[in-house]
């Protein structure tokens, strides 16, 4: 493998879009404790942003509204784990992965059910592969992504998809349209392990997404099996869902294990107006108007 060659003034930018679980069906549980899931997933234009550039020594800096929420400890930071796992793989192949400065602009709330940390890790893999300009077999990159977390392979793809298993079995969806939506979060955490422990049934019917004339009809036939439990743990989820409905959303659901909910609107303008009204009503909560990516070969993050 050839050594990496980088210009000193090179800056690589990668977006880390929010991951939206349009549907999440819990269909079983493996012997190792991992839950089996069927998920209908898309990604938004809104998300975190990462910059990568050559440096004399490794450096990691954060900025943005939610940077402080990550705390001072970096031991479990997925961006740094992604950097090290990728560097190890490149070194094993005889390549070079020089020091890098990484700047994370954290605009997504953490532990919010929209894959913020996983999206950051996936963007780190994409960005460093571009910066270091060292080819690796795709199967190696996929293995690194799964090692980082069950959501990271989906975030690596960052396109509309269906995921099975623990999230690693991915099938792209080419005909999904863009949805205008408002992301809403009361900025209170809900424990994902506690949500899964609260499930009374872990063998629910699987996801069945067939071609239909209207995607909203498709969504209406699906579920998020985690939402009833999460609502019991955090009453604000029901409150914020009602607020989205009151603003005229045509469809409202919680994403992942919460607490972020999304409301789908007819147009991006309508979503922006709703987000403005909701911020005025609850300025201490998180509301963001955005649009999801479309399916097909042009879907992606750059």
From TrEMBL:
Keyword field contains tRNA-binding: no
Name assigned to this protein: 4-diphosphocytidyl-2-C-methyl-D-erythritol kinase
Any GO BP: isopentenyl diphosphate biosynthetic process, methylerythritol 4-phosphate pathway
Domain of life: Bacteria
Chain ranges of the GHMP kinase N-terminal domain: 77-157
Function: Catalyzes the phosphorylation of the position 2 hydroxy group of 4-diphosphocytidyl-2C-methyl-D-erythritol.
Keyword ATP-binding included in the entry's annotation: yes
Residue ranges occupied by any GHMP kinase C-terminal domain in the UniProt entry: 223-281
Family of the protein in this entry: Belongs to the GHMP kinase family. IspE subfamily.
UniProt organism field: Rhizobium mesoamericanum STM3625
Keywords carried by this UniProt record: ATP-binding, Isoprene biosynthesis, Kinase, Nucleotide-binding, Transferase
Single GO MF annotation: 4-(cytidine 5'-diphospho)-2-C-methyl-D-erythritol kinase activity
